[in-house]
Structures are given as structure tokens and as C-alpha cells.
Design brief:
Blueprint lengths: L2 H4 L5 E7 L4 E8 L1 H7 L6 H18 L6 E8 L4 E9 L3 E8 L11 H5 L6 E8 L9 E6 L5 H12 L4 E7 L4 E8 L8 H22 L4 H6 L2 H9 L4 E3 L6 E2 L5 H11 L1 H11 L2 E5 L5 E4 L1 H9 L12 E3 L1
Parallel strand pairs: 5-11
Antiparallel strand pairs: 1-2, 1-10, 2-9, 3-4, 3-6, 4-5, 6-7, 8-9, 12-13, 12-14
């Protein structure tokens, strides 16, 4: 372990790798960013917990992105909670929001099924959205049924089904902090003879099974109450691991007036004109950061006078009021 890990600030993602085995791990601790996400919303306890876990998971997965862009994680369904959205880019800049039915009532310990999957229509979506798309390029999107009673299981099932990668997650969040542990078994590179390959794969599997077993000793309350420097030592003190320079997540909302205008164009001129007739001016509040954008009749006319193509947004950033 290094002193650099010990001196890291609160919002920290720490990568590590097991020596002589194709197994990697990450620990994350998010407090300031998580409180910033919650500052403009009063979500029920069960929603806060699920969204906080999703925030930690998005950063854990984004830390391994190999392109300049963002990962967008969404859960949607037919329950009292309609949508969870978390967006995290390669610099670990995060924003998140949730949308509930107007009459939503939830017990504090509501499961994902109770929140999203009442009639089996819940879905989990991961979108990889490059920042420097070429004309006509669409984001990659994977959609799977919402399988699992907790966030970690849902994402593990997605990674195995869509990415064919063994991934284990331990996630926890409360009002103050969001923390998580990720372990992944990586594929071995070719170039060895069969005997060497078999020996390496056996060592990888042994290390993987041992790491998962150690991870399984981690309880939710321990994860919530223990900072990641201590957790790293406590869990893997007998292992030979290498740690890397820590990364630091932060809250960032990418909303702009241009993007909000693009959202209005996606609604169509007829719907926008109808809303203008009723309201006189359209006010759009960003669901993520609360910033207000106003569009009057002249602004909207200029939007639809433009021949610029409408580009899809992942996800939509606000609602008309």
C-alpha cells in the first residue's frame, strides 16, 4: 500500500490489480458528489439507496472506459418509480436523477421489483455515448430485463450477459456516502503455449475465487462505515496487489441551452406551439442540476427555422413547466 492512498480526499476511486493474475479491483467512496446530487430532490429512502448504489457502480464501470465519452445507466419500469438515470464520463464527472409516479408510496426497504418491476416490465439499460461521434454515429446501447432484487445483482447479470465478463459488485449508499467494491476477472492475452496458458488460467481462477470469497465477507454496514483505504487493507492484506494513482469523482451537469433546445425540437413543433399557446413561455428545469432555461415564442420559432439535424439525447434533461 502507498501513502498516496491514505492521503486521498473523500471522493476517491482506487484501482488495484492482483500481481501474477488477471484479476483487477476498484474501491470507490463518494460523499460530496453524492450530497450534491441529492441537494435538489427529496427522494424516498429506498430510492436514495438505489440511486446512490447506481452512482457508485457507474463510476466503477466508467473508470475502465477506453474512449472519450460517457456511460449512461438507466432503470425504468412500470412501478411507482419510473426511472433512475446516472451519467458518468471518463473523467468521473457524474450527474444523476430519479423520476417517480405522482402517487408513489414506498416502504424504506422496497426492493427493485417493488419499485420498478411490478408487472415484469422493468429494464436495465447501459449506453456508451462517445463525446466525439462522427456524423451518423449512434451510441451503443445494451438493454436487458431487470433481473435481480438489488443493484449489484442487476449489474452483475448485465455484465455477464452482455459483456461476457465475470464481475462482482458490493454496493451501499445512505444519505451521506455512496461506496462500492468491484472485482473483475480479465481475459488472458494469447502468446503462451498450451501448458503455460493452462497454468496461468488456473492461477487466475484461484485468485479470482479467493478475491470473491474475501469480498463476500464485506457487509453493508461495514461498507457504509469504513473508508476505502481501510477496506483495501482489511480485505486484501494477505494478497500481493498493486495500487494505482487514485481518481476523484465530481458532480458535473452537461446541460446547455443548446441541448434543451434540441429536446424541444424532438417534441415537435405542434406540441411546442400548443404548450406556448397555454403558457406563453416555456420554462425548462434541468432534472439533474435544477438550472432554469426559458424559451419564448421567438426563441422557439428560431429553433424550428433551423435546418440543423436533431441529435438524440441520452438522457432527456428536463421537462416543460
Amino acid at each position: 500500500m502507498t501513502n498516496e492512498v491514505m492521503s486521498a480526499p473523500r471522493d476517491t476511486l482506487q484501482k488495484f490489480i492482483f500481481d501474477n493474475a488477471a484479476v483487477r479491483g476498484e474501491l470507490i467512496e463518494i460523499s460530496d458528489t453524492w450530497r450534491e446530487i441529492q441537494a435538489r430532490h427529496a427522494y424516498p429512502k429506498a430510492v436514495r439507496s438505489a440511486l446512490g448504489e447506481m452512482v457508485a457502480a457507474s463510476a466503477l464501470l466508467s473508470a475502465n472506459l477506453k474512449f472519450n465519452g460517457a456511460i449512461v445507466m438507466q432503470i425504468f419500469g412500470d412501478g411507482p418509480v419510473r426511472l433512475l438515470v446516472v451519467e458518468c464520463d471518463a473523467q468521473l464527472r457524474i450527474r444523476a436523477t430519479a423520476k417517480l409516479a405522482p402517487d408513489a408510496e414506498l416502504p424504506d426497504d422496497a426492493s427493485l421489483t417493488q419499485m420498478f418491476n411490478v408487472n415484469g416490465k422493468g429494464r436495465f439499460v447501459i449506453t456508451l455515448d462517445p463525446a466525439d461521434k462522427v456524423p451518423g454515429q449512434q451510441p451503443y446501447q445494451g438493454v436487458v430485463p431487470l433481473t435481480g432484487e438489488d443493484m449489484a445483482t442487476v449489474i452483475e447479470n448485465y455484465m455477464l450477459r452482455s459483456e461476457q465478463m465475470d464481475t462482482r459488485l458490493w454496493l451501499a449508499a445512505d444519505d451521506s456516502v455512496s461506496r462500492g467494491l468491484l472485482l473483475q476477472k480479465l481475459p488472458r492475452h494469447s502468446g503462451k503455449d498450451d501448458q503455460q496458458k493452462q497454468a496461468s488460467e488456473a492461477e487466475d481462477l484461484e485468485t479470482w475465487n479467493r478475491a470473491v470469497m474475501l469480498g463476500q465477507t464485506l457487509k453493508r454496514e461495514e461498507l457504509l462505515s469504513t473508508n476505502i483505504e481501510i477496506l483495501l487493507k482489511r480485505l486484501f492484506w494477505e494478497e500481493t496487489i498493486r495500487v494505482f494513482d487514485p481518481q476523484h469523482p465530481q458532480f458535473h451537469c452537461s446541460c446547455t441551452r443548446e441541448k434543451v433546445g434540441n429536446m424541444l425540437k424532438m417534441l415537435g413543433q405542434a406540441e411546442v406551439d400548443s404548450a406556448l399557446a397555454d403558457l406563453g413561455e416555456l420554462g425548462i428545469n434541468c432534472d439533474f442540476c435544477g438550472k432554469h432555461y426559458a424559451f419564448d415564442k421567438v426563441d422557439c420559432a428560431q429553433l424550428f427555422a433551423s435546418d440543423a439535424p436533431v441529435e438524440s439525447m441520452m438522457p432527456a434533461s428536463g421537462s416543460i413547466n
